[in-house]
Structures are given as C-alpha cells and as structure tokens.
Amino acid sequence: MADKKTFYITTPIYYPSGKLTIGNAYTSVAADSMARYKRSQGYDTFFLTGDDEHGLKIEQKAQEQGIKPQEYVDKMAASYKELWKLLDISYDKFIRTTDKEHVEAVQKIFERLLKQGDIYLGEYTGWYSVEDEEYFTESQLAEVYKDDEGNVIGGKAPSGHEVRLVKEPSYFFRMSKYADRLVEYYKEHPEFILPHSREKEMINNFIKPGLEDLSVTRTTIDWGIPVPSDPKHVVYVWIDALSNYISALGYASDHDELFKKYWPADVHLVGKEIVRFHTIYWPIMLMALDLPLPKQIFGHGWVLMKDGKMSKSKGNAVYPEMIVGRYGLDALRYYLMRAIPFGSDGIFTPEDFVERVNFDLANDLGNLLNRTVSMINQYQQGQVAPVASEQDEFGLDLQKTAAETIADYKAQMDNLHFSQALDSIWKLISRANKYIDETTPWILNKEEKKAELSRVMTNLAESLRLVAILISPIMTQSPVKIFKQLGLDWDNAAQKDLNFGGFGWDIKVTEKPQPIFPRLKNEEEVKYIKEEMKKAKPKKQSRRQQQAQTSDNFITIDDFDKVKIQVGQVLSVEPVKGSSKLLCFQLDFGNGQKRQILSGIRKFYPDESQLLGKKVLAVVNLKPRKMLGMESQGMLLSSEKDGQVKLAIVGDEHELGADLG
Ligand code: MSP
C-alpha cells in the first residue's frame, strides 16, 4: 500500500509573557481547523505548536513574580496547554524552547553556521530602552533626537521611554549573501508567501533596500541558549525561535524519523507582523543548512478592536475563557473563522459577535435542526427513510446546492479560506431552510401525502448530516450534537460519507429536539462582554502599592529572614550614561566587601554628589542583574511618598556591613 500523503502545519510559538487573548487563539484555531480538515481528507497530519520561552521579557516577568525563569515558564506552558485543551486544539506536539532537545539542536545549528562562515563575530550597535529592556533599530523609534549635523543622538522607544545607543559584541548572520537566491526562490514558488500582497511587501521594504546582517546573540542577557564555543553570548531570539519547526521533529538528533517524514512543512501560519522573519530569515537559515524550504508561509491579519490593537492595559482585551464559558466553544471558533477573512484584519465588536451567534448559529443552523428533528418526531414517529432516488424540482435543487457546497468548501479549505468555506456551508443551510418553506411539510402532513413528506424529511436530515461533517474541522462540538439529535453516531465512519445520499439512513430518531445554540438577549450580552473586558484591565499600581495591598496576607518571620539587608557607605556615585533614570553606586560594606548597585533614582538627586559618604541600606542577597550591560549586585532601600523617592540613609552609629533585622 502506498504511504499516506503527509501534511505538516505549525503555529508560531507564543511568548509566555501573559494570558493569551482571542487574538492569539485566532492563529491556533485556524491551524487546528486546517489540521482537522487535512486529517479528514486522509492526510497523515502533524500539527505543531508551543512556546518561545527565552529572552529578557520572560526573565523580567519571572523576577516580578519573585520566581526563577524556569519555574515561571513551566507555569505558563502548563496554562497554555490548559487553554488549548479548552479550545480543542488538537496539536500533535507542544514544543518548548527550553526542551533539552531543542537547546541541543539550536547549539548544533549555531556552531555549524559559525564554522561555515555564515555567522561571524562583530559589534552590535542599536538603541536600547532600559525600561522596556528592549533593543530597537533607528527606524523603530517613535522619536529621534538629532544634533546640528543631523546625526541621531538619542530618541524615544514606541513606549515613550528614552533609548540610548549601545555597542556590544554580537554574532551576526550574513543574510546579504543569500538575498539573490531568496528572490529567485520567491519567483519560482509563487505560492510560497500568501497572501500575495505580503510577498511584494517583503521585496520592496526589506530585500530591495539591501538585507542587513542579523544580530543573533547578546552578551547582556542571561536567560537564553548559550553559544557553546563562546558562552558569554546567548542566542538572541530568531535562531532560537525559528529552529523550533525542525527541532520539534528531531532534526540534528539521533532520532530524526519525524523530520524525515514531515519536513518540509506544508504551511507555517503566522501573524502578519512576523511574516518577515518567516519569509526572509527562516528560508535563509534553511538554505545555509542545506535543507528544503517550507512550502508555504501564510501571514494572517489581526483581530483588532474598535480602538486598535487588543491590549490588557487599554481594557479592550477579550479572553477566550470568558467567551467559551458563556457562549460555548463553537461560538468562538465559528466567529473567529467566519467574521475575519483569513489574511485580512478584522474588528471584534461585542455587537457583531452576539449578532452572528444569533443570526447564523441560533437562527439559521439551530432552527434548521430544531424544525427538522421536531417534524421527524411529529410526522413520522422518528423514522427517517433512505434518500429517495426520484426527486422533485426542489429536491433536485437542494441536492445541486449540496454538491456545489461540497466542491467549493474543499477548494476554499485547501486554500485556508475558512471564512469563504463557511459562507458556502451557510448557503446550503439557507437552501435547506428555504426547502422547508417550499415543500410546506405541515400541509403534506395534513393532506396525508406520506411518501412526499418522508422524502422531504430525509432530504432535510441528509442536508444536516452533510452540514455537520462540513463544519466539523472548525466547530468541534456541534457536529456530535447534530448527529445525536438525528439518530446518527459520530464515531461511525460510514455515516460521514461526504455526498448527498452517500449514507443510506433508514434510522429511527429517538432524541427530542434541543436547541444547540440558545438565542441570546442582544443588549444584555453586549453589556456583559463589555463589562468583562473592563474587568480584565489592570489597575495601575506601583510595586509598593501592590505590596501594601497584600498586607493582610501576613508574611512569616521566615519570609523576612530570607532578605539580607546590610549597611553600606557610598564610595562613589555617578549617572549611568544614556539613562535618564539610573545612578551607579560603588559601596563599601566593611571588611573589604565592595559592591556595585544601580538604582533608578537619578531624577530625585540632580546633584548626586550629596550622597557621597552617606550610609545607606541595601538588600545584598538579590540575584545580580544586568542593566545596560552593567551588573547590579543588590538593591538600595528607599521610601516613596507622592511620587517622591528618598534613599534610606542611616546615622553613623550603624556599622558598615551590619545586618538589619
Ligand atoms: N514568539 C514569537 C513567534 C516566534 S515563531 C518562531 C511571537 N510570539 S507572540 O506571542 O507575540 O505572537 C504569537 C502569534 O499571535 C503571532 O502570530 C501573532 O500575530 C498572533 N497574535 C497576537 N495577537 C494577535 C491578534 N490580536 N490578532 C491575531 N493574531 C495576533 O511573535
């Protein structure tokens, strides 16, 4: 027997930096729908998802929660897996970039590229925001400051925070070497980047102006994969993240069966903002590794809100748990795949969501099922006869619509046009509803036209059987319910033949009709969703306020004992270059113990020299942390009132190095 055709589909790996919104769920629901569709078409399918666990942001999040990065990412990965379970995401593997196998693969890839000369050691120059802990290129800055000669001397990050120019050693990937080959590849593979408009964007915006070599390591970050031959460096972002698509299959390990079977990927689904990395850096990496390129990168659009991007702080984020909890999973999956044509942006509004659930699901589909099952019960005591070979004009037209829908649905699904595939299915649903009006079964019943009535009932049941099968990659729960109400069994493959009349029926329906999508009260539900969105907005609080709030959760003396506070004397203090916030202190703790501590109090001490010789209090057992490449070995205590911060200065009676407690 010939081997089954394979299909390998991936989602991006998500940053575990917070709760996932319906925007993130969008990519996963789309990938899941495609994976389910391909499985239903007989493909041996592998569906990969996972998370992207390294980097500064993650380190920072862990720090905020007072736990180790590993502990933090373990917790987040578990919560993401829970969410995917709730959303019926049928992935075959969940890769984490801290997985040993992935780390080893990335290290092998890096060393190979280094040895080949595709990666070289240079110096990274870029704009860095301490507050955001993020690097920016000049073009990414929201504002730039120039000197008289027009040279950029500073600026602001998109967050509004000041940036400073940093220079540090970094390894670079020689991208430019592969630019021509890449453009050639695009030309020979017109389906490589979809939608097509995104290919033009890549060529015009990034390749034509000249591909810059990509900085691929950092020396200022700890939480990352170390470069084996130069462990001061950790691999920075993209080589680590992109490699997941092959490391997950065992590439560069001694068990690469999955890699041999599934690579190259059939499609990487990604949001439009990361198309660049997937259509330029990733293919180039693969060319350098002498590996085949993925067959397709599909850059989908964003789920937006009326006021732009979804964000927790704006109070406009919608979380999948809330929608699923109140309206059911299929309402969410249906809405995401129907309301926004895949590839375009779309705006989520509570009004639109409630309207779609009511019109499309409760009215069109729900009523069709309800009326059909009621009539079968009422007029035929639950009996459904086989599909009749002779049909009248309405029956023939219904069959024709079913056949067209099935063909169009396949064509649309094969091209990831989920919304259009659903449009087609809803045409069949409308046609079936119209069929009831045309055939008026209540009159056939009154006039005792039994044969005709039975034929009509079967045609309706058969239409619904097909609808259930067609929606099943996208909606995972309703098809089972529809089958059950029609007296069918979802696990019986013979009942899932995708042709009108492809299943023989002759079945007794025993279920009473039950609405699968209850009608929603419009205003009430719109209000509910809006309130839930507001509730999710975090109140702005300083760290100290947050601490004060938990004051009724007493800490124990053991908790307090963990903090080691000592008296130190300021030997020298100076502003950190390029930072408007930081002062760098050298402190003496007696007995030859010296420490460097950075503190964000610059604006409260315009003349920092007044602090020289002062005795201050410092937490000395905090994990050292790098800021702007400088290590801070502790934290100075200070007080804050009405936005004013003062260092805690103690009198001379306190000895250097004395422990506080
Ligand atoms: N870690 C990188 C991807 C590395 S892949 C090798 C990343 N992670 S992310 O968590 O920021 O984003 C993951 C995906 O979620 C992206 O494809 C992004 O487009 C998608 N979405 C996040 N919010 C979204 C919407 N509001 N709407 C649609 N998708 C959006 O980028």
Automatic annotation (TrEMBL):
PROSITE patterns: AA_TRNA_LIGASE_I, TRBD. GO terms for biological process: methionyl-tRNA aminoacylation. It is found in: Cytoplasm. A motif ('KMSKS' region) lies at residues 309-313. Residues 559-661 form the TRNA-binding domain. Belongs to the class-I aminoacyl-tRNA synthetase family. MetG type 2B subfamily. Is required not only for elongation of protein synthesis but also for the initiation of all mRNA translation through initiator tRNA(fMet) aminoacylation. This is Methionine--tRNA ligase. The gene is metG.
